[in-house]
Design brief:
- The chain starts with a helix and ends with a strand.
- With 318 residues, the protein is α+β, with helices and mostly antiparallel strands.
- The protein has 2 domains: 186 residues, no CATH class; 124 residues, Immunoglobulin-like.
- The strands form 3 sheets. The protein has a 5-stranded mixed sheet with strand order 3-11-10-5-8, with no helix packed on it. A 4-stranded antiparallel sheet has the order 2-1-4-9, with no helix packed on it.
- 56% of the residues lie in helices and 22% in strands.
Length: 318
């Protein structure tokens, strides 16, 4: 009985020792696993902080690039290089969000390159500002010179206009006086037709006078007048233009008419004859063409030569 109890106590001790060993092993394993978890947490936290810091730096560089692009555009410079670097930066920011093999050293190197580029661009912008300042100064100088030239040109134009006005007035006065003189000379030398008589000629050549004629008996008209001598008139052939006007003022056509200029105006005439001027109070007879139609009423006959009206007559158609 004592032997059995002694065996049981020995077995219990062995079990207790084994259990103590198992518990010690479990405790060791637990502490090891806990330490590894803490290390992993620390590593992950560090990675997150590095990613966040890198993202902030890239965003800051992106903002600086945007500011420089606007500044260079305002200065009139080229932004092609800046836009190319901005595109590369945006690509790096996109990759950062999905980069499972993130390396802070790699991105620090990129960030340093971007920052170096920004510093270089600051130097370029300072130079561009300096060049623009020089251009602005030159532009202001040119604008000042331009305004001076405008003022001088305006003064010259005013003087020229005044001189032109004076010359024009002088020329106009001279021209008017010269024209008046010419007109006086022309008036003095103009032909005159006095004692104008209009008679009718029948188809057989019979002449009827008296100043009143039946329409059916008028085949042609004979216009007779005296051309007084004129000592200042040129002794040459004179073209005499005859206008036969009905009681409405319309020109009677007989197939030999045309247009003549009188006092700067063009007027129609019925027929024309050339007469040698003999300067001896000569009598002139002008015979019209045939074919004119006459109706009842009073007719007037106007005579023109060398641009002047030289005489007038009338006749009646019954």
């Amino acid at each position: 009985m004592e032997t059995t109890q002694s065996n049981n106590n020995g077995l219990l001790k062995v079990i207790i020792v084994v259990m103590a060993g198992v518990l010690a092993l479990l405790g060791y394993l637990f502490m090891g696993a806990r330490n590894e978890t803490l290390e992993l947490q620390k590593s992950l936290t560090s990675k997150v902080e590095q990613l966040s810091t890198t993202q902030i730096k890239l965003d800051s560089i992106s903002k600086s690039l945007d500011e420089k692009i606007l500044e260079v555009q305002g200065l009139g410079g080229s932004v092609a290089e800046l836009e190319a670097v901005k595109a590369q930066l945006e690509n790096d920011k996109k990759k950062l969000k999905t980069d499972l093999s993130f390396s802070v050293q790699k991105y620090e190197s990129k960030i340093k390159d971007y920052e170096t580029f920004l510093v270089a661009k600051d130097d370029d912008i300072r130079k561009l500002k300096a060049e623009n300042g020089i251009l602005v100064a030159k532009t202001q100088t040119l604008e000042t010179e331009k305004q001076q030239v405008i003022v001088e040109n305006t003064s010259l134009k005013t003087e020229k206009a005044e001189l032109t006005t004076t010359l024009t007035k002088t020329v106009d006065d001279f021209t008017n006086k010269n024209n008046d003189l010419k007109r006086q000379v022309n008036l003095a030398s103009a032909m005159k037709a006095i004692n104008v008589q209009v008679t009718a000629l029948s188809s057989k050549g019979k002449e009827r006078d008296g100043g009143e004629y039946k329409a059916k008996r008028i085949d042609q008209l004979k216009v007779a007048f005296i051309m007084p001598s004129n000592p200042v008139a040129a002794q040459n052939n004179k073209d005499i233009y005859v206008r036969v006007l009905d009681n409405n003022g319309a020109v009677v056509e007989n197939g030999n008419g045309g247009i003549v200029q009188v006092d700067g105006k063009e007027i129609a005439y019925s027929f024309r004859k050339s007469v040698p001027f003999e300067n001896n109070d000569q009598r002139v007879d002008l015979i019209s063409g045939k074919g004119a139609n006459y109706t009842k009423g009073q007719y007037s006959v106007e005579l023109y030569s060398e641009g002047f009206k030289i005489g007038k007559g009338i006749f009646e158609v019954k």
